[in-house]
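Entry type: protein chain
Record version: 2
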Amino acid sequence: MGEVQSESPPSKVIRPQSGMCVKSSSMSDKKKVFLNICQSQAVPPPPHLSQEALVELLESEDPTSYRVPMSLGEPHTEVDNSSQGCTVYDVVINDEFFQKCQKDTLFQQFLIAVSLEGLENKYNLELSRDIKILKNRKFMGCIGEQNIRTKSKPTIQEIDSNYNWNSSKHFVLCGQGICICSFINQMISARSLLLDLGEDRLVLIARPSLFHLDIFFPLLIDQENSVAQFNTNTQTLTVTMPVVSS
């Protein structure tokens, strides 16, 4: 089994750029809550999505199937224009996706909705959807640095042809604390593959320009303990990823 090379989660400190400020409130105590929606090149962009596809997604039974990578900062206390205390959260997204949302009202509303939902899930909050985008300021208080996780790259190890592999073209199996992906394509060797893992995303590229696979998972992956194996006889790549318990 190929072991991930680093023992601690790979990360780096970024200083995001300002974007827009959204005013909301906490449903429990009605206190003001502000979202500094910031932008950075360090955050990966979500998969391409047209406006028509977004409309179909929002009308579907599972709109959460489309994931927007974002970094959610810790709450910090600031003082608003009325000299009253308020809680502020910094949400960092990809800069190109932010610009796209600025040009399209539907994408902007979608971005705000997923930001609110992300904060609610992470911090066990309930935030009002009666929001207001502040026109004359791009952020509340100050925007601090954030430590974001970077992609982890499992080592792909070639193994002998006696190993018993599943013969399907590709499959994803998640359950019992582990997620397994298997791919069969005419891959010449492990050296032609580029595999990246995010917290909930797998990107596989077969060079030169054989295919590009991008998968989002409905759960969090333990990147540091994920392993990958490539069978040279069946030309099958299998990635085994432990699931982070919630």
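Comment: The longest helix spans residues 105-123.
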